[in-house]
Design brief:
The complex is a heterodimer of chains A (336) and B (311).
Chain A (H helix, E strand, L loop, with lengths): L1 H9 L4 H8 L2 H20 L1 H32 L6 H17 L4 H29 L4 H23 L4 E2 L7 E4 L2 E4 H23 L1 H11 L1 H6 L4 H27 L1 E2 L3 H15 L5 H18 L8 H15 L13
Antiparallel strand pairs in A: 1-4, 2-3
Helix pairs in contact in A: 1-2, 3-4, 4-8, 4-9, 4-11, 4-12, 4-13, 5-6, 5-7, 5-11, 5-12, 6-11, 8-9, 8-11, 9-11, 12-13, 12-14, 13-14
Chain B lengths: L5 H28 L6 H17 L5 H23 L4 H21 L9 E2 L3 H15 L9 H22 L2 H11 L1 H6 L4 H27 L1 E2 L7 H13 L4 H17 L9 H22 L16
Antiparallel strand pairs in B: 1-2
Helix pairs in contact in B: 1-6, 1-9, 1-10, 1-11, 2-3, 2-4, 2-9, 3-9, 6-9, 7-9, 10-11, 10-12
Classes of the chains: A mainly alpha (336), B mainly alpha (311).
């Protein structure tokens, strides 16, 4: 809403300005993204832009799904969950572990997602719930999350080794539509990702639990006095966050064709970026933030070597925190 | 290998000294200023790489490159701090870790930093010094222990930094820092320039990280990016919380304990591959972080009263 806000504050509240401010942030975002795509089309040609946009949409699926859990946990519990990226890794590795037992890939993935959700839930009961009761400081929450991230990551490495593993699916076959190419597996990731994002969006908007979760992330005390069973809702949030992290991990692994024990931690900062972009605590914002990060990182390959993709994510994170720390949609306080 | 192997324990002593100096900087930020700096390893890599490149690419003598690297690192600290210190505590943590990852990716991908091969051949001056020192030590029968000069240098620096920080902490400057940690609005109301003090704290931590980076560089003989991933900072936090929140002396004890514990694991002769023992070290560090934060957040030597962070 920056653009609208600037217009509204820069001049006395005249009618055109107010109308400008009334355009929802989502519309602004769409306008900005389309404008960026058009500018790049002029600079780099439609085929290259179309192809990177397609790749960006593939990435947007797992960024969005990963960021939703991160933002819900932060919004409700004030926990910056450094272990969230490692839940993605866990989901991917559990999928491989289960499919090694003989189950086909996608059923194994479904089981792994359920297991990741249950593990996130169990970690809440064992670690986070006692810490909530003890009213711990930001530093303690940070250190526990960092410790948890290390325990999960290196436990995976302990049992599965540190080497890069191929996903064991057909990563070579691809689909072509006109000048555009997409791996079959990536196309599947794109479809599953879009469907899952849509499903999450609908569930947040229309189900009772979805509304409760959003109410909690928005204002915990207010949610509590309006009769929401916060304990149950918080546990549900961990289940949802864990399950979506597991799904994001599976999609990420399928999209890049391999896994290693560090891969979840390495995209954690991109997930933070998506969450901060969308406004911390705002689940829809995180979905949109994931889209922006996915597109921005892939579009950046039009201008820089692909090795710099992660840096693009970090740079966006820093710039967003510095110039509009409340994100595109968010409200809240970011200054000390 | 015998548990009484002198070279092994001297190696542990060197590493714990390096972590000690590194974590003194974290303690200054976290324990005494209330700044959750998660990017300490970024300042260390900037300092170490600056030193390495000044020697290898620019041909500077090491004795000149090291202080220059400290200045560069301090400047980096100020540059990072200027826009970010006004952020909320948790956002500051995220931004600093993002900074350290950007630094790592730049050193990994930019041609000037040698990429994944890293930087090699900056330590000739140090070898000369070490040979001279070993000759001197031979006079008292200690010439055989190759890393002894490094151990002495690391620990002399650690104790010097420790003494300097403790002196600073009991000065008016140190009291203002603590006031900022307790209540920065109150400190500001008393006319203190909160922002400037935080910036100085961050710059000083960056300088300490560079001293640690110097000894790390001398210990490993070449610099490569993956050495500087965020795990190094997290290991520093484990040292900090083990030794004690807001205790400089605790940092020294914590560094020795944690390094002895993680390195000494090998004497248990567990039936593990070398990769698995490496993973186990980090699992233990993680468990220490979780366990201490949950059950004894002030650490071994920290005061509980010091933990009243508003953040």
């Amino acid at each position: 809403m920056t653009v609208g806000r600037k217009a509204a504050s820069g001049a006395p509240a005249g009618a055109p300005e107010r109308r400008l401010a009334d355009i929802p942030a989502a519309a602004w975002l769409a306008v900005v993204l389309v404008a960026a795509a058009l500018v790049m089309t002029i600079a780099r040609g439609p085929v290259a832009v179309g192809q990177t946009t397609l790749n960006g949409l593939v990435a947007a699926g797992y960024f969005s799904l990963g960021a939703v859990g991160l933002t819900l946990v932060f919004g409700t519990l004030r926990i910056i969950n450094f272990a969230h990226g490692d839940l993605l890794t866990l989901g991917a590795y559990l999928t491989f572990g289960i499919s090694a037992l003989g189950l086909p890939f996608w059923p194994a993935a479904a089981l792994a997602i359920v297991l990741t959700a249950l593990i996130a839930f169990a970690l809440d009961r064992i670690i986070w719930e006692p810490m909530r009761r003890a009213r711990t400081s930001t530093l303690q929450l940070f250190l526990v999350a960092i410790g948890l991230a290390m325990v999960i990551r290196y436990s995976i490495q302990f049992f599965a080794g540190s080497q890069v593993r191929a996903v064991g699916q057909d990563v070579l076959s691809s689909l072509s539509v006109g000048p555009f190419h997409l791996g079959t597996l990536q196309a599947l990731v794109l479809v599953v990702g879009v469907a899952a994002v849509a499903l999450v969006g609908v569930a947040l908007a229309f189900t009772r639990f979805g509304k409760q979760i959003r109410a909690l992330a928005d204002n915990m005390a207010l949610a509590e006095i309006s009769g929401i069973d916060t304990l149950r809702a918080v546990r549900l949030i961990w289940l949802v966050a864990g399950g979506l992290a597991g799904l994001a991990g599976v999609l990420y692994a399928a999209a890049i064709g391999s896994v290693n024990p560090n891969f979840g931690f390495f995209i954690l900062l991109s997930l933070f970026t998506a969450a901060v972009l969308g406004g911390i605590g705002n689940a829809y914002g995180a979905l949109a933030g994931g889209l922006v990060i996915g597109l921005a990182q892939e579009w950046s390959t039009l201008f820089f070597n692909a090795r710099w993709k992660p840096v693009v994510g970090f740079a966006i994170l820093i710039v967003i925190l510095l110039i509009m720390p409340r994100g595109i949609f968010g409200v809240g306080r970011a200054r000390s | 290998m015998s548990i009484f192997n002198v070279d092994f324990w001297i190696g542990v002593g060197v590493v714990s000294g390096i972590y000690g100096i590194f974590t003194l900087g974290l303690q200054l930020n976290v324990g005494f200023t209330g700044l959750i700096n998660l990017g300490q390893v970024g300042f260390m890599s900037v300092g170490a790489y600056a030193m390495g490149m000044l020697v290898v690419d620019a041909g500077w003598p090491l004795a000149l490159a090291f202080p220059a690297a400290i200045l560069i690192s301090i400047a980096t600290g100020v540059l990072v701090g200027l826009p970010t210190l006004r952020l909320r505590a948790d956002y500051f943590g995220i931004v600093t870790i993002a900074f350290s990852e950007i630094v790592r990716y730049v050193f990994q991908n930019a041609a000037f930093a040698g990429g994944n091969q890293g930087i090699l051949g900056y330590d000739a001056d140090w070898r000369v010094f070490q040979a001279w020192a070993s000759g001197r030590l031979a006079a008292i029968g200690l010439g055989e222990v190759a890393q002894l000069p490094l151990l002495v240098a690391v620990w002399a620096s650690l104790l010097l930094c420790l003494a300097a920080l403790m002196a600073l902490q009991s000065s008016p400057w140190g009291r203002v820092l603590k006031a900022i940690r307790e209540d920065e609005d109150a400190a500001a109301a008393l006319g203190k320039n909160v922002f400037a003090f935080k910036l100085q704290s961050l710059g000083l931590a960056a300088a300490l990280a560079t001293v640690a980076g110097f000894f790390l560089a001398m210990n490993v003989t070449y610099l490569y990016p993956s050495e500087f991933d965020p795990s190094f900072t997290f290991f520093g936090y484990a040292v900090l919380i083990l030794g004690g929140f807001a205790s400089y002396g605790g940092v020294v004890v914590g560094a020795v304990l944690l390094c002895a514990l993680t390195e000494g694991l090998r004497f248990l002769e567990l039936p593990l591959s070398s990769g698995q023992s490496g993973s186990l070290r980090f699992i233990i560090v993680g468990l220490i972080l979780i366990g201490l934060s949950m059950f004894r957040p002030q650490g071994l030597f920290g005061g509980k009263a010091e933990m009243q962070l508003r953040a």
